[in-house]
Amino acid sequence: MSSRMRAEIGEQPEALRRTLDSLLPRIPEIRSLAAGTRQVLFIARGSSDNAAVYGRYLAETHTGRLSTLAAPSVATEYKRRLDLSGVLAVAISQSGKTEEIVETLGWAADCGARTVAITNGARSPLAEAAEVALITEAGDEFAVPATKTYTTQLVAVALVGLGLGADVDPSDLRQVPDEVERLIEAAEASEALPAIVEELSHVPGAVVSGRGIAFGTALELALKLKEACYLHAMGLSYADLLHGPIAVVDAKTPAILVAADSGPTLPGTIALARRVTAEGARVYSVGGGPGLAEAGSLALPGPALPEWVAPLGLIVPGQLLTEALARRIGIDPDVPRGLNKVTQTG
User: What share of the chain is helix, strand, coil (3-state, %, to 5)?
Assistant: First the structure.
């Protein structure tokens, strides 16, 4: 039986096209706002925080600007004033109603930052609080796990990168909707998807790893597996994994490795896959081209996209995996326990 989550995964190509059509013309506005800034501060929680991780790597690898993730408690609990002159603060929230994120963006502005909001809520408090509001065109999302709101956020984050002068080809973004459409079909036609689902249904946990531009995707997939499948999924950079936590990867704890089909972190991901399989553990790969597929146990196809936009498609096979695994183990992926669409942090 199909879920609402699965339907919303399928709605992503059109949501991405709408968002690109709406936001591409806003690049000059972002460029003007960012003029005179030197650093980028991302403010987010949950899936939006994983979109922010993508933004951090994009900013630092392609715009030459120092970028960081905010600690909202500095604003909301410690109430400490910082010098944020020269900072572009980018707040990301699906609903635009999370009070902590709205408050932190207001705090950033009061501390001297220029402010951007990325949200699916056109008339939300977050959109009203920002100097520039980038409204994604995901449409209503009813399943609690974010799918189309997450990938459309990535589009907006990519456009912030372009507004900051990223040394990439903007036309790459136009390839994304068609590639996501192809990926959905390819992943569901693959023999690997049901095989991975079956194997994961018998383990208590997994390690999900990637690095660089793909790191946010690894974190997002780990989050999805935790919230929708109750799997003890640990999201780690493979550099951190090699510093000790690799000891948890064994016959009962497989590794899921995510990577773009190109880029400087791909060789390290392939080497990690070979090491893990040599020690008797299973490796499931998402993306990484034929090199990663051959090094692992089972492989889901990734997007044929340049590395800088690969995360916009790379999460999609992971979404399909999560939805199918939840149903396999008897969980309704639309309404996982303990979660609401809008989370307020006290």
Answer: 50, 15, 30
